[in-house]
Amino acid sequence: MGVFEGKTALVTGAARGIGRAIAEKLASEGADLALCDLDADWLSDTAAAVEALGRKAKGYTVDVRSTQGVQDAVSAIHADFGSIDILVNNAGITKDTFLVRMSEEDWDSVIDVNLKGTFNFTKATSKIMMKQRAGAIVNIASIIGLIGNAGQCNYAASKAGVIALTKSAAKELASRGIRANAVAPGFIQTKMTDALSDDVKQKMLDVIPMSRFGQAEDVANVVAFLSSDASSYMTGQVLTISGGMVM
Fold it and tell me: For residues 187 and 245, is the Cβ–Cβ distance under 8 A?
């Protein structure tokens, strides 16, 4: 029997990349998956991958920025699955440019998806978990939310906000049997990093003591740990996954 047998996990930004890796990892450990994203086509692929692992999966096309849209999606998920035991807030975007060039739209869109989206799903799902008196919330932050980065004021602010939201939610929800933790990935190998020049990649690797990029599975493994009873005495924590870049 899997670690998450009989449990339902809700993953946002689940269509591809880190979100898909998280969904597949949780499914491999026995969870059924509610998958949320704006990309319906890729969402279907993730659902098929979860079902191939023998678990129930259903995709929900939802804009994390929409408070009502998120509430409706969470209500539908609860009706379809009967419970929501794990929430992984993974949906996020970047719109990088230097502060003096950053438009209001660049700022607002990143804050709305990364921070407001996390708030929306956490609020809507917490109400269900409170009635269950059990639940695990894992928010995907970033090392940029801890150390900042030139050209990413909006992204850094959003991820720092996610970390603060996680800690505050952990304090509010602990008495109801709900834990809230965050992970802060460093440079994870994705299609974005694959497109970088060798020179840029090398400069990144030079600041990583382990001298390699992380994989989506590295993040998924830590998310699974924080979602499980193996971390039952942990809440309000931020675990960095950066190959030693942030110590």
Answer: yes
**How many Å separate Cα 97 from the centre of its chain?**
23
* Spatial contact of 4 and 30, defined as CB atoms under 8 Å apart: yes
Decide the pairing of beta strands 57-61 and 135-140: unpaired
Please choose, from the candidates 196, 195, 187, the residue with its C-alpha nearest in 3D space to the C-alpha of residue 241: 187
pLDDT along the chain (247 residues), means of 10: 95 96 98 97 96 98 98 98 98 95 98 98 98 98 96 97 98 98 95 78 93 96 98 98 96
CA-based nearest residue to 136, from 82, 73, 79, 84:
84
The rounded distance, in Å, linking the Cα atoms of 59 and 20 is: 12
Query: What is the 3-state composition of the chain as percent helix, strand, coil, each rounded to the nearest 5?
Result: 50, 15, 30
Does the global pTM surpass 0.85?
yes
Neighbours of 3 (CB within 10 A): 16
Distance, in Å, from the CA atom of 167 to the CA atom of 238, rounded to the nearest integer, reads: 9
- Concatenating the DSSP letter of every residue in 160-174 gives HHHHHHHHHHHHHHG
Count of H-run helices and E-run strands, the chain: 10, 7
Nearest to 190 by CA among 27, 21, 12: 21
Q: Which residues are catalytic?
A: 155
Residues with Cβ within 8 Å of 51's Cβ and at least 6 positions away in sequence, in order, are 57
